[in-house]
Design a protein that fits this description.
alpha+beta; three-stranded antiparallel beta sheet; about 20% strand; globular
Length: about 600
């Protein structure tokens, strides 16, 4: 059985990632990309669906664990009756194929260790053939192969369909294991020195983290969030995934289970805004290049999400051989939201390009051509209903957040044109900005309640309406803003956290409840600070940060009743919101 969502630590190589539990088991690993089929899928089933455990014989969960400084190198410590042992897990930055490395170190006394490698390709469905070579155990099935290099002196043997490694580690000894994935047609797994790779990996992460310019009181959670966001970036193309997992439920046993291993324009844009704020420009430049490639073509065909390479076809399928995390079915791979029309992504994209310009990244003419194409499309279609930010599976509506983000698109496009002098129909864009603003204020506002609502002709509260103040659509002292912020705080409260909205089949087309949405708690903290309630903002921010696990990692949602994380993890949306709110609170305190 898989662990709790908050039991998992993230390691990665900037092209894919793995999740390591407190029991020393790697329960999720997709290779060679974030969105490739998993060869360890115990996260969505049990150990027979693939995992790699390394722990003292008979031991359960570890005594403690940590990341080594500002890196993605994980150290897990077990204290046993006979001694203490530390396992260092990491993935070196990619030089061709992904490698998962585990160095077992004797800390004190003598500890009997056992490794259990259960490879299952294609999301736990295919049991590979395993053979022994002079230096490796090799597992092969179809296009996949995995090569386990075991150091001399370690007794390795097969037991049923599991490769076991038994050995003893004494104080001062270091025993390295290297698992390499590669296409099965290649002849052999390359040899890599694990100790050298560890030093290089530590150095690369430390050099990158040294560029952070945040200096506030929440330095540790901000830095961990920025490292996590960096880990979600696919280095070969610049695309950024929303999370490294699929189908972790928004409520245990429920059906709200989605695949988040793709590049949402919205999530990617918000991630870039956080990285830019943190002082990291290279990622913004790489993402912009990815965007121009992915979005090439008819602006009317702009998708809400793409594959990490810019792929457009991401069909949603159901893996009926997997029982799901805590029996939460169906397990889905791919995402049908790729077919949805989401107006807000136009605003997110253009806003991020504006932020990049302000950060000193020049607006190249071909990128400006993309902005003009997107604006031409919005001029003709801004008044169309859409599926909206929350990607419900119900009917299209006129979502207030979507319209606000259309206003953002027009506003930022005007600002870019004014700042650069690039040719543009600025008068038309200003007129569009004014028209959309008036439309939202007239149709997205409930005069009886005195608040902005979820969608036109509705009365429901939605945390996304906080964007009326986050984006500058209205000033924070506007009474309509103040009342909207208060309504979100009071009506969407769930045990001190914030829901997106009140789940309802009529609204989103899906049955069942869900947890509190962690990003919304950070958004509300932002809005409380902006509207003159800094003490409330800091209290809420601290509560949301504390929902992270012992390593500072946050998933999509939180269940206040059980004090459990819910949803895919680690979630870019959540960590972005944490970073941005930390900056906001630091600035408001000056």
């Amino acid at each position: 059985m898989s662990g709790r969502i908050e039991d998992y630590a993230l390691i990665g190589d900037l092209s894919t990632a793995a999740l390591v539990g407190r029991d020393g088991s790697v329960d999720w690993f997709c290779a060679p990309r974030f969105d490739s089929p998993a060869c360890f899928a115990a996260l969505l089933g049990d150990e027979d669906h693939g995992r790699w455990r390394m722990a003292p014989v008979g031991a359960g969960q570890c005594t403690e664990r940590r990341y080594r400084g500002d890196t993605l190198v994980l150290e897990t410590l077990w204290e046993t009756g006979s001694g203490a042992v530390r396992v260092t897990d990491f993935m070196p930055h990619r030089d061709g194929v992904p490698r998962l490395m585990r160095i077992v170190e004797g800390v004190r006394g003598t500890v009997e260790m056992r490794g259990e490698l259960c490879l299952r390709f294609n999301y736990g469905r295919i049991v590979p053939w395993v053979r022994r070579t002079a230096r490796h155990r090799v597992a092969v099935a179809g296009p996949d192969s995995a090569w386990l290099r075991v150091p001399p002196g370690v007794h390795t043997y097969g037991r049923s369909t599991v490769t076991c490694s038994d050995f003893t580690v004494r104080a001062g000894e270091r025993v390295p294991f290297v698992l390499t994935w590669q296409p099965s047609h290649l002849p052999n797994g390359s040899r890599t020195d694990a100790e050298r790779a560890l030093g290089e990996t530590l150095g690369e992460w430390e050099r990158w983290a040294a560029g952070c310019r945040y200096e506030g009181e929440w330095r540790d959670p901000v830095m961990r969030s920025l490292i996590t966001l960096k880990a979600l970036a696919y280095a070969p193309t610049g695309g950024i995934v929303a999370a490294v997992t699929s189908s972790l439920p928004e409520i245990a046993g429920g059906v709200r289970n989605w695949d988040y291993r793709f590049c949402w324009l919205r999530d990617s844009s918000m991630t870039l805004s956080a990285l830019l704020r943190g002082g990291f420009r290279d990622e913004a430049a790489a993402w912009r290049r990815w965007l121009v490639r992915a979005a090439a073509g008819d602006p009317g065909d702009l998708q809400s999400l793409y594959g990490v390479g810019g792929e457009r076809r991401l069909p949603e399928t159901v893996a009926d051989w997997l029982p799901g995390y805590e029996e939460s079915a169906p397990v889905r791979f791919g995402n049908a939201a790729v077919e949805q029309f989401q107006l807000d992504v136009y605003g997110e994209v253009i806003d991020t390009l504006y932020l990049a310009l302000r950060a000193g990244i020049p607006m190249e003419r071909h990128v400006w051509g993309l902005v003009r194409s997107l604006m031409s499309y919005l001029e003709a279609h801004w008044s169309d209903p859409d599926e909206g930010l929350w990607e419900g599976r119900g009917a299209r509506r006129h979502w207030v957040h979507s319209k606000v983000m259309v206003w953002v698109a027009a506003d930022r496009a005007v600002r870019i044109a004014e700042a650069t002098g690039l040719p543009a129909p600025v008068d038309r864009w200003r007129a569009l900005r004014d028209t959309v603003h008036a439309d939202v204020c007239a149709r997205g506002y409930d005069p009886g309640r005195g608040i902005f609502v979820q969608h036109y002709d509705g009365h429901e509260v939605d945390a996304a309406t906080l964007f009326v103040v986050k984006t500058g659509f209205l000033p924070p002292w506007d009474p309509r803003v103040v009342r909207t912020v208060a309504a979100v705080r009071d009506e969407l409260d769930q045990g001190g956290f914030v829901r997106r909205y009140v789940p309802d089949v009529a609204t989103d087309g899906l049955p069942g409840p869900e947890g509190a949405f962690l990003a919304c708690s950070f958004w509300l903290a932002d809005a409380l600070a902006a509207t003159g309630r800094p003490a409330e903002a800091r209290e809420l921010f601290g509560r949301a940060v504390a929902a992270g696990n012992d390593l500072g990692l946050l998933s999509e949602e939180w269940d206040p009743e059980t004090a459990r994380q819910l949803g895919n993890t680690p979630q870019a949306f959540t960590h972005v919101a944490l970073v941005n709110t930390a900056f906001t609170l630091a600035e408001s305190a000056r």
